[in-house]
Design a protein that fits this description.
- The chain has 353 residues and is of the alpha/beta class.
- It folds into 2 domains: 63 residues, Nicotinate-nucleotide-dimethylbenzimidazole phosphoribosyltransferase (CobT), small domain (5,6-Dimethylbenzimidazole Phosphoribosyltransferase, Chain: A, domain 1); 269 residues, Nicotinate-nucleotide-dimethylbenzimidazole phosphoribosyltransferase (CobT), large domain (Rossmann fold).
- The chain is built from 15 helices and 6 strands.
- Strands 3-2-1-4-5-6 form a 6-stranded parallel beta sheet, with helices on both faces.
- Helix 2 packs antiparallel against helix 3 and helix 7 crosses helix 9.
Amino acid sequence: MNSIEAICAGIGPLDSAAIAQAEARQQQLTKPAGSLGRLEELAIQIAGITGNPVPSVERNAVIVMAADHGVVAEGVSAYPAEVTPQMVLNFLRGGAAINALAGQVGARVVVVDIGVASAIEHPQLVSRKIAHGTENMAAGPAMTREQAHAAIQVGLDVVEAEVARGLDLVAIGEMGIGNTTAASAIVAAFTGAPAASVTGHGTGIGEEQRAHKIAVIERALACNAPDPQDALDVLAKVGGLEIAGLSGVVLGAAARRVPVVIDGLIASAAALVAAELCPAVKPYLIAGHASVERGHRLILERLGLRPLLDLDLRLGEGTGAALAMGVIAAAVRAHREMATFGEAGVSERDETD
């Protein structure tokens, strides 16, 4: 049994006893039952994930995986591939949107080079390069099955290291010019939806370039024929190294009973791959937001998730997930810190009315 199979075998259902206790506590807090809406649902879900009826989410991280994509050679992005390493250094120096938004919610940012085409050196960089980017998926498989497997293992290793540091809640983000093309191809492969219905404007391309991007994805799907019943096949043929790595983060976090906040299209495509590999991960996922990218809502529907926020975001990096971490922290804090009717000396609802 390989490590991915072993991890999947170890991911069980949420803790029903913790859920029952959390639900009972919500009924006793000084508010009308259900009046905090989805905040109550979040607190109960996290109780079930962690096995703690009164959980805490004080130690948080955003794991950002970075990699390049050979399909950029087809002209699918408004930006050149050189932007990938430039933005990775920006993350490491603290100058990107994800740094600002993660800082707002007290989350550390962990930056992983899993497949950037050029060399990057920085003391805070987690360097786990599998390859110097993927191959051009429009002309053949993006990577080998072995590379996809190895990239998932990187994700497992990275989240395990973060758990050792202390981790209550993890968000996933990415960087990689061309990765909306890969993510859209993954969605089309798994769902059977036409490429046109799941392909957006990515980094801000115009309608003519979007039409070209759709054609490239259609070509990639036609020449690779990814098998939707084999998640690793889909990932290897039309995915990306950072998408594979984030799939590993999702699997590893679920195995350690850590809630996972997913970001937009690319991070959600990674969560979709993880869920196709191991359906038991789905209850461990929280959708941070609804991206304006076309394929994102289709992923959320397939995963059975409702996004917490809808702010017209399409940046990636984990930004929407980081914002949602603040809502999740508020939900858990209310659950922990509110007094019960008995503790506060407040009369409960009169059920005879």
